[in-house]
Design brief:
By secondary structure, the protein is α/β, with parallel strands linked by helices. The protein is built from 13 helices and 6 strands. Strand 5, helix 11 and strand 6 form a beta-alpha-beta unit.
Length: 398
């Protein structure tokens, strides 16, 4: 696929098998690097959580990933977060919240939010009369968290960072300074290493940011679509780590659900006959060759449900009072949604796994008329432990 927009997991043979062979090893390299460098911080953090009963203790891999998330987001956004006025901050937070629960006024909210994000989150001018020091985690970490929450794109990652902020406040300034320095060093290492190892999958990101992105201006998705190359790589590694962390529990779940993006539908919105339910849209089999229809038929045979989600913010809506371990979900999404989606699912007591779209192309964000997207079905069937998955894959390609 020569004209992909930002990333592409497929090789010259037009499949992403090589990517899925490579990403486990690179993710393990990242985990081992963080384990060696940040083991003491993670030990202290886990002890703090246990002592003060902050939350149910997670796995070391989850906290290792959070170290990386904090470092990468700090490197990308900390300078933008220094000078966010109080009134725009409160307004943007309110708009992000309203957008999730008020779909009637969504277009109006998106218009206001896009304009305000462009002015205050992306284009805000630093007051020349104020002398700013170089941002540092021990002084400015909370400002970054506030900025991330205002964007509406990092709600659950910012939520995790708030717990780390409590931990930092519990320790003295020298401890936080040293921890912050280490977190940034790990993020610097990851950026260089990931460009070398994963850069072949994200060759068009810089080109997109230099050309098409300048026309996004005051669009509501101006922050989401303006993400840097390292954020693509962070989500690739993050998805692999989260899949690993939740794998055993996912396999034990009684109910399994696949959430598909609307960009996988063969027909556009105005001709696709999908039917709305409280869990998402269900396929009405309007096209025999549509991948959604095919997966729906496979689901009936192998006991999993399939729902179409028009937008990532709709995912898992209408799900309350779930006991952790009962429902496993496979989220299929653009790479930039993976970590946030996985954390959101876990927050709702769903047990997440994910499969990355091989390339992006939805009408909402990336392409004027929309491109039908696709996934690695071998990876999906491996996650679901469907027997004879290779045979099904071959039949899908015929």
């Amino acid at each position: 696929m020569k004209n992909y927009i930002t990333y592409n997991l497929r090789d010259k043979l037009k499949h992403s098998d090589e990517y899925y062979k490579f990403i486990p090893d690179f993710s393990e390299q990242v985990i081992q690097k963080i384990k060696i460098r940040a083991n003491n911080i993670i030990e202290d953090f886990m002890a703090y959580i246990t002592e003060f009963d902050i939350e149910q203790l997670g796995s070391r891999e989850e906290y290792q990933l959070e170290i990386l998330i904090m470092g990468v987001l700090w490197n990308v956004y900390s300078e933008k977060s220094l000078d966010l006025p109080k009134i725009p901050r409160k307004t943007l937070s309110l708009l992000s919240s309203m957008r999730q629960y008020s779909w009637i006024f969504k277009k109006c909210i998106d218009s206001i939010k896009g304009k305000m994000a462009y002015k205050y989150l992306l284009k805000g001018k630093i007051d020349k009369d104020i002398v700013y020091n170089t941002p540092c985690i021990e002084n400015d970490f909370e400002k970054l968290i506030i900025w991330l929450k205002c964007t509406g794109e990092f709600k659950f990652q910012a939520g995790r960072m708030e717990i780390w902020n409590l931990f930092f406040k519990h320790n003295n300034k020298e401890y936080v300074r040293n921890a912050g320095k280490l977190i940034v060093e790990l993020a610097d290492w990851f950026e260089k290493e990931s460009i070398e190892k994963l850069g072949g999958y994200t060759l068009n990101v810089k080109k997109f940011l230099m050309n098409e992105y300048k026309f996004y201006g005051t669009r509501e998705d101006n922050i989401f679509c303006g993400r840097r190359e390292v954020e693509y790589h962070l989500n690739m590694v993050g998805a692999e780590i989260l899949n690993r962390v939740f794998r055993d529990t996912f396999l034990k779940t009684e109910d399994k659900i696949i959430f598909l993006p609307a960009c996988m539908c063969l027909k556009p919105y105005n001709t696709c006959r999908r039917k709305k339910t409280d869990k998402g849209f269900i396929c009405m089999r309007c096209s025999e060759n549509c991948k959604v229809n095919i997966l729906n038929r496979i689901g009936k045979k192998y006991n999993f449900k399939v729902y179409i989600v028009p937008h990532e913010s709709n995912a898992f809506s209408g799900r309350k009072h779930i006991r952790y371990g009962d429902i496993g979900i496979v989220g299929i999404a653009c790479v930039l949604n993976l970590i946030e989606g996985g954390l959101k699912a876990r927050n709702l007591n769903l047990v997440p796994q994910c499969v990355i779209l091989d390339y992006c192309g939805c009408k909402n964000h990336w392409h004027k008329s929309g491109i039908e997207t696709d996934i690695n079905y071998r990876k999906l069937f491996e996650i679901l432990q469907i027997p004879q998955g290779d045979i099904i894959v071959r039949n899908l390609k015929q």
